[in-house]
Amino acid sequence: MADNRHPPVTDFATDFDHTDPTWVNNPFPIWDELRATCPIAHSDRYGGTWLPVTHEHVSAIAYDTENFTSRAVVVSEVRPGPMDLPAPIGVAPPITSDPPFHAMARRLLLPAFAPRKVDALEPFTRQLCNDLLDALEGKDIVDAAVEYAQHIPLRVIAKMLGFPAEDADYFRHVIHLILEEGITVTEDDDERLVEGQALDAYFDNQIADHVANPRDDLTTFLLEAEPDGNKLMHEHVRGTMLLILVAGIDTTWSAIGSALWHLAHNPEDLKRLAAEPDLMPFAIEEMLRAYAPVTMARLVAQDVEIGGCPMKEGDWVLLPFPAANRDPEFFDRADEVIIDREENRHAAFGLGIHRCLGSNLARMELRVAVEEWVKRFPNFELADPSAVTWAAGQVRGPRSIPVRLPG
Amino acid sequence: MRVHVDAEKCQGHNRCYSLAPELFDVDDLGNAVELNDGNVPEGLEHKARLAVANCPEYAITITE
Fold it and tell me: What is the pLDDT of residues A54-93, one digit of tens each?
């Protein structure tokens, strides 16, 4: 892929870039400083991008589906073109859809991700975690991200969609291309086209296989659904597969990784959690608040002023829910991780009509993954803090966490 | 004490149902509904307040 990396940022208030190494390694001080000095930053990068960092502004934009469109939700050099499905449907419904189409596309999927449906996947998830943990037994140093966290949502999502578990490496490749490489590619990038065609072909194969052999999974469900009396368009089915694959894996893997990373260097929290399992639900929400993986984005649909800033039609707006979650105006001791925090109105799964469709599934996977890890290794620790690496882009989580297991 | 879910505001975050399953249920779409007409049995007042304080959409209210 062409090297389109950006020059380093020297001033985040006027020239921010969410792929800058300073941001990738530790964005919190950047957001804290902006919140105190300039609550909505602007950058000319990506053809013009805004960055609100307070809970007030992030939520105002999340709720405003008139002035902000979800037609594209990953900031990149390329805005949606004439060949992409137009608003209100978008490329990956319902995340890229606006009202009124959004409600139909979302309603169709909600039952599959409702709490009781998710509960049914818990035994599978717990067994999967234990199989992964079995493979770590007896080792001195393991990578909690590479050898544990990443496999959990990959396998759960493959199972839900009815895709072969052996294709996990390909899914990882696709996710990396879309969420990391995709940020810096340009319109005329041939490799982007080739990869896109290969992915469409992959989905087409899965669809053909499910048409020939219908079974109890989300793919067959999408193929048979008739939400308005008609079957879904082929592009809608493929787009929703893309959404579930991209939004359901990297995000949860990041959340699991961040929670384990936190526990690996906060022995007091680890000790308490191992001794008081009733704290787990509160600890999980606090991890989600403090290390929310997902920053969303919108395009400005029509000129609008937010917080005194003149946003123009076509500008990008980053929606950093992780920054809203650290706003001291909204949370007491916002910069501290308090694992028994009782009042926690965090926005890790977004706010408003685009609340993460898979939040119940993600929360179950995160809780089960942490529970089983802590049960198995109640006193693990970071092996080399400087070796921890973080994903660049709008989904933040550790990609490598070398930890030492108790002998 | 009674709890009330504003169906217009609820987006199905499921925080109330997780924290207080004695007071809230969820429908097939995952949106919250009050149990027992919203009446909060004695001893569950703290759970009712927790549900209010954790709803990201401010969809739950309490009347005494």
Answer: 999 999 999 999 999 999 999 998 888 766 666 677 788 8
* First CA to last CA distance, chain B: 4
Domain ranges, ordered by start, for chain B: 2-63
Cβ of A281 under 8 Å from any chain B Cβ? Answer: yes
Which residue in chain A has the smallest CA separation from B51?
A343
Confidence of residue A186 (pLDDT cuts 50, 70, 90): low
DSSP-derived secondary structure letter, B36: G
A221 shares contact with chain B (CB less than 8 Å): no
Cβ <8 Å between B55 and A345: yes
Which residues on chain B are in Cβ contact (under 8 Å) with A347? 56
Q: A12-404 — its CATH code?
A: 1.10.630.10
Could you give the ipTM of this predicted complex? 0.97
Model confidence band, residue A3 (pLDDT cutoffs 50, 70, 90): very low
Please check whether residue B47 is in contact with residue B22, taking contact to mean a CB–CB distance below 8 angstroms. yes
All residues of chain A having their beta carbon less than 8 Å from the beta carbon of residue B56 are 345-347, 349, 351
Name B3's bridge partners: B62
Residues A113-138: what's their mean pLDDT?
A: 97
Say what the pLDDT of residue A86 is. 66
Give the residue from chain A lying closest to B58, CA to CA: A345
Nearest by Cα to A311 from A59, A48, A13, A32? A48
CATH of domain B2-63: 3.30.70.20
Q: Domain limits of chain A? A: 12-404
